[in-house]
Design a protein that fits this description.
It contains 8 helices and 19 strands. The chain has about 425 residues and is an alpha/beta fold. An 8-stranded mixed beta sheet has the order 10-18-19-15-14-11-12-13, sandwiched between helices. Strands 1-6-7-3-4 form a 5-stranded mixed beta sheet, with no helix packed on it. The two termini are about 25 Å apart.
Length: about 425
């Protein structure tokens, strides 16, 4: 997915002029450039999906009397709404992503805000954000050639490629808070397998802070990112209530920003493990019709409701499967240099069943991440049969359909040495 970063000027809020000169001619189709005025003739419009605006924008780009582009979109009243909605200022930057030949997405970059590591909240600043000050070196006494602190006995137990995981009382299972949370035991097991005490763990889609909670339990440093401010606020509150202290003085920091900006926060060769459960493409962007919810007092209130994370176009949960895999790979391409050599990258995903068609999202992700430099090491099955209740008979008697809710994929990659 091609993209272009542009810097805002005072003219953006005052006149709606968005300076798209840095994108250049080749970033847009040739026929989008119209005449100097509407009467003289418009170019063939492109569609802009603008973060924060409910309706897409169709516009062309005018040229001046000499035939050169004016480098602003002809329709520009929406620019003022976009700037005000996100409280942007001159010198802030936004990114235009090319989705296809005639479709683009416009999203703000929040990287002009420093991180307050004590309060875990953004502080507005005109200076570029500094790299997060967080330790990434092991504090244990394990031999240097060991990839974790496990004993040989624990190692053997962990080699089984089918995992059964359980939720505990501390887990968040309220869909009003977050529609899809994995148990603390999942990132905990990955952290034990692939890191030492004191090392740095990353969760690019931190949600309500499950990975950071696991890292705190295991005396690992951790940083998590999420687009949604309410999830970051919840994570900070959740972390503040944890009382575990091993004397290692580890930090767990939650940052509200697009995962595409993670390289602006962390140094290269510092991350020992990236582990996450990203949105499963647009799986939640529909009414819940699972038969298992009907008559179940715990979840019945969500029957026929849409539990989509947000309407932010940069939210991976708004994208179709293949577009989603490409966007995910673009994010992980930026994360790759941040990983230590042979550091592991774990992604928990599920496939999508929609309109009587199966979309193998796990395959799309494997292919996309290998293209940007990752190497697949293991495929682990999360056996969820112990968590599934009251399932209906799907497809009977003429269409055999396996229950995808009974298992998920845990994809284990690493950065080649």
């Amino acid at each position: 997915m091609d993209s272009c970063i542009i810097q805002l000027t005072k003219a953006a809020e005052k006149y709606g002029n968005l300076n798209i000169r840095p994108c250049g001619r080749d970033f847009f189709p040739k026929d989008v450039f119209g005449k100097p005025s509407k009467k003289a003739g418009l170019g063939t419009p492109i569609t802009l999906k603008v973060d924060g605006l409910s309706n897409p924008i169709e516009t062309d780009i005018p040229i001046d009397k000499t035939g050169n582009p004016r480098w602003i979109f002809r329709k520009r009243k929406w620019v003022k709404d976009f700037v005000r909605f996100h409280k942007l200022r001159p010198e802030d930057t936004v990114t235009i992503y090319r989705l296809d030949k005639r479709a683009y997405r416009l999203s703000p970059n929040n990287h002009n805000h420093q991180v307050d590591e004590k309060e875990h909240s953004p502080i507005k600043s005109k200076t570029p954000k500094k790299v997060v000050d967080i330790n990434y070196n092991r504090t244990c006494d394990c031999p240097k050639n060991h990839i974790n602190c496990l004993t040989a006995k624990d190692w053997v137990r962990s080699q089984v490629a089918i995992w059964e995981l359980y939720y505990e009382k501390r887990d968040i299972r309220d869909k009003d808070i977050h529609p899809a949370v994995f148990p603390i035991s999942l990132p905990k097991k990955c952290i034990k397998l692939f890191t030492h005490r004191g090392e740095l763990v990353l969760d690019p889609f931190v949600g309500v802070g499950t990975t950071l909670t696991a890292a705190r339990d295991l005396a690992r440093n951790a940083v998590g990112f999420d687009l949604n401010r309410k999830y970051i606020d919840f994570t900070n509150k959740r972390l503040s209530q944890l009382e575990i202290d091993f004397g290692d003085k580890t930090k767990q920091i939650a940052i509200c920003d697009d995962a595409i900006n993670i390289p602006k926060y962390l140094k290269e060769n510092t991350i020992s493990l990236s582990v996450t459960s990203p949105p499963y493409a647009n799986m939640l962007n529909r009414k819940r019709l699972h038969k298992s919810t009907r008559g179940n007092l715990r979840v019945d209130k969500h029957y026929k409701k849409n539990l989509q994370y947000s309407n932010n176009p940069r939210d991976l949960g708004t994208m179709k499967p293949k577009e989603y895999a490409e966007a995910l790979a673009e994010i992980y391409k930026g994360i790759l240099p941040l990983l230590k050599p042979k550091a592991h990258c774990v992604i928990n995903v599920n496939d999508l069943w929609e309109n009587n068609h199966r979309y193998p999202i796990h395959s799309y992700i494997i292919e996309a991440l290998e293209k940007v430099g990752y190497e697949l090491r293991n495929i682990i099955i999360w056996d969820k049969r112990n968590l599934v209740n009251r399932v209906g008979i799907f497809g009977w008697p003429s269409n055999y359909i396996t229950l995808t809710i009974t298992f998920e994929y845990i994809l284990d990659f690493w950065r080649p040495s």
